[in-house]
Amino acid sequence: MAKALTIRARREPGYVIVAVAGEVDIATVARLRERLSVLAAAGVPLVADLDQVSFIDATGLGALVGAAREAAAHGTSLHVVCTRPQTRRLFRVTGLDRQIPLARDLAEVLAALQGGQDARPS
Questions:
Q1: CA 19 to mean position of chain CA atoms
Q2: Alpha carbon of 111 to those of 68, 97, 103, 115: distances in Å?
Q3: 105 close to 81: Cβ distance less than 8 angstroms
């Protein structure tokens, strides 16, 4: 049985953190895509926390790429926080770690945002 997808957004001073949990696949990706699109249009940096994502497929990765592009169009960025080895490996294998900053924790992202630079893969 598939693990339900939950998406929680929390606004913080200077950024929005989007905690995603469960499985991101073709059956659930529309909800994630819609939520990220709305948040990206706000023009503040987005931080997608994927630590509780148990599975993500190509459609999920595509939703993140779309959100990163939309954020850039609104003058901001999307960063991903994730320590899960399998998810980090997907980012490396697909080359997304060169397009979307990937960090191990929120502190790494916040340091990059304060420095005005993209977070570098760790």
A1: 9
A2: 19, 18, 11, 6
A3: yes
If one counts every other C-beta atom within 10 angstroms of the C-beta of residue 43, the result is 11
CATH of domain 18-104: 3.30.750.24
Give this prediction's pTM. 0.89
Give me the residue label for tokens 């960063």: 79
Mean of per-residue pLDDT scores for the chain: 91
Query: Where are the domains positioned within the chain?
Result: 18-104
Q: What contacts 63, CB < 8 A, 6 or more positions away?
A: 24, 29, 32, 33, 36
For the chain, the maximum distance between any two Cα atoms, rounded to a whole number of angstroms, is: 43
